[in-house]
Amino acid sequence: MRLVRAALLLGAALLPLAATAQSVPQAATAAVKPIAFTERTLANGLRVYALRDTGTPNVAVQVWYDVGSKDDPRGRSGFAHMFEHLMFKATRNLVSEQMDRLTEDVGGYNNASTNDDYTNYYEVIPANHLQRLLFAEADRMASLVVEPKSFASERDVVKEELRQSTLARPYGKLFSTYLSAAAYTTHPYARSTIGSIENLEAASIDDVRAFHATYYRPDNAILVVAGNFDPAQLNAWVDQYFSKIAKPTTPIPRVTVQEPPRTKAVRYTVYEPNTPLPAVLMSWHVPADRDADIPALTVLQTILSTGESSRMYESLVYRDQLAQDASAFLDSKQGTGNLIAYAILAGGKTVEQGEAGLAREIARFRDAPVSAAELAEAKNEILTAAIKSRETAEGKARILASSVIIDGDPRAADRQLAEIARVSAADVQRVARRYLGVEQAATIRYLPDTAKPAGQSGDRITVAATVQTAPLTPPAQIAIVTPASEAERIQPPAPAAPVKANLPQPVETRLANGLRVITVERHDLPIATAYLVATGGQMLDPVDRSGVSNLAATLMTKGTTTRSATEIARQVESLGGSIGAGSDNEGGSVSVTVKSDQLAPAMTILADVATHPVFAPDELERARAQQVDAVTVAFKNPSQLAAMVADRAAFGASPFGAPGGGTPTSLKAISRGDVTAAYARTWRPDQATLILVGDVTPAQARALATAQLGQWRAPAGAAAAPVALAALPAPRTIVVNMPGAGQAGVVVERPAIPRADPRYYPLAVANTVLGGGFSSRLNQEVRIKRGLAYGASSGVDAARAVGSFAARTQTKNPTAAEVVTLITAEMARMGAAPVPDSELSTRKAVLVGNFGRTVETTGGIAGLIGGYVLDGVPLTELQSYTSKVEAVTPAAVQSAAVALLDPKAASVAVVGDAKQFLTPLKAARPETETLTEAQLNLDSPTLR
After folding, report:
1. pLDDT (tens digit, 9 = 90+) per residue, 601-641?
2. Buried b vs exposed e over 198-208: b needs ≥16 C-beta within 10 Å?
3. How far apart are CA 615 and CA 672, in angstroms?
4. Smallest Cα–Cα separation from 16: which of 309, 379, 296?
5. N or C, which terminus of the chain has less Cβ within 10 Å?
6. Phi, psi of 524 (to 5 degrees)
7. Do β-strands 516-521 and 688-694 pair in parallel, antiparallel, or remain unpaired?
8. Which residues neighbour 158 within 8 Å (Cβ) at sequence distance 6 or greater?
9. Residue 529 φ/ψ, nearest 5 degrees
10. What number of other Cβ atoms are within 10 A of residue 36's Cβ?
11. Is the pTM of this model over 0.90?
12. How many whole angstroms from its chain centre is CA 491?
């Protein structure tokens, strides 16, 4: 099972849970019932699964096809993925992009993904729109229209996706192309899902039509519907729309190639641009997901890399400080999969050291059994993740569909759960010895091109000539579908009556020390989230100490007066949870999610972390080094660096302009005194709020808060006053030249308004029209009409003191100037004319729908309330949010856009290979400034 599936499947396991934070987990008790579903198969072979949940106002519709990138035709790698994009275009009865009209425009959403083994299409919509989605899914299964304009546009979009994920992102080639090519000598899993520019260019319209006719058929698909529906009505609609789709008489081509076992280790060394730190990756073959050894391998992977008490984190990241990041994942499939372990090395460390460290941790599994504590902790961690995955109908649908497609059995989840519960230490050692031997490893050493020795080129990692692929043999007769005329087009059915949503009802109290306690009860699953927030944060950081609040938050979980960093991680993860602390512009937070019967011991640890951190000098040095490395990596990502440059350009000397994570210079200047002062500015009970959401009552919440935080006392004196905002600088256009960058990152940013400003809702709606969602104006202009980017969006961050607006995208370097012009033109158009009522209503639905899905999970509710607390918003906003959005008028949107979206007040940041776009950008914006990476100084308000 894939890493995510390992978490999903354990939701119904019978696993041990600790009685206290310090004890070793003991025997198991039942936690979550298996997913209840019905199944039937239509005469044409379509398998239909239904999961009813009347507790949600929504319904999830998923169609999974048993075809993935392993089925890409010869010479057409990336084809299944490109075809996925085309499924959102026209059908006989639907116009191009109408799937977005049927989902996003009514408050839902849709998306799709391509995997080695499958392609899945999924939507979540208000339950009264179910019939319309069934109509649409059936229509695109039966009658997809493929025409030259959409084909060319989507091929360009996929190219931009490839540039973004593989070429522009640090380590993109390592994970996107080299990993699979190095792992296989025979099976077509060797080819990357995204493919190559050359193969994408080679694809033709005839290829697309043949692919659809070959694989997109009812007997090669499953339909899963989960949520609030009437079962009899669902059956009638499925029959009405899907049963008439013909089952082809031709057989479905299947990949039958078997990957031979690897009996001799292979090793590659490559040198790549845009590699801020060296990396090393090792992989080993594992059997198909349905194999009896997968449960033990799942537990092994969890012990190896899940959480800060995992073996890889404790040794490679924490103790030896070899890696800035180290992790592992189990990528199991219909056929031979892989266990993958990797390390992004810390500054000054070598790939030889990294490889030795990874190999040592794998050898430990072969050489000795894991401990009883490790075994129980791993099972509990998977259990908590599993319960979280089942909080929504969509999550449950995904679990079931994955089991059907990967394992061929909708009940495979329950079978694997029982097997995981029985995994022993001996089982873990046995599978390590069987699959993870020294000679069974494939290793990739990934280094900066600047480290390449003179006269050497490094190894080439390409798909082996021995990999077996097949050409696509199309059916003899392929019908070419054309759009129906207006007179003949069948319109989607009308929506039914809306289903009323159940909004969270928070209950608030306050302790004698000033601590607010907010509780939201949800007893449908045995899970609870504790979220402690406090006002303060990065806006209080001294001018020359950017990143100090972030560093203080990191260190809060790295040692208290009674627990070391390792003890904190081991104790909370033994409960199946993980603890995290963070800092943002106007506050800080500490959170943990656990099974509800572990909430009391988890709260003990959370309270200790929040109130008794010690900020030990050795922990400070370790955290500082890790953050410097993390920032170094971020500086080589064009989109991330563009965002930081735009912040500084828009806000100048204001604290909101400084990088929240710091810079190498500011981080190196921070002392322990700076860290303790940053903690003290934020963390005191009279400016803190504890939010408990899930399987907990208000009385239990107050008792827990009193027991664990009731003795917390505020220091003498008033809390730190907010820093007065400096005068904001004039707008600028700044280019940072990153030679060889795979794409250009583009950000257009300007200051906005605080959350309490009465114009907040008009601005939120205006922003959603402009850049919120797939159907927004920016995405329409940049992606859908022109294929210049994988996506374009905008967002409003309205906090307590100030806000910001930013529009952003990534595009190939030669079109960066064009994209800047498109973004600023759309910003100006927002204020030039009122938004039509028809467009405005759909964008309001996006906001309301996003809000509704957020409050379906404990973590979503906790995060939403935490944001309200930090922004100074009353809790009544939960009940009034929808009505406030609906009350926004076209005039109010236009007024907000004139005042707050005028591009003349915005700064522009472009990071990329400047020689490819600087001339047209300067022609359009003569004031453009250019900086090299070496000249850029994010510590300075002027960036110089």
Report:
1. 999 999 999 999 999 999 999 999 999 999 999 999 999 99
2. ebbeebeeebb
3. 7
4. 379
5. C
6. -75, -25
7. parallel
8. 78, 81, 82, 85, 194, 195, 200
9. -115, 130
10. 10
11. yes
12. 35
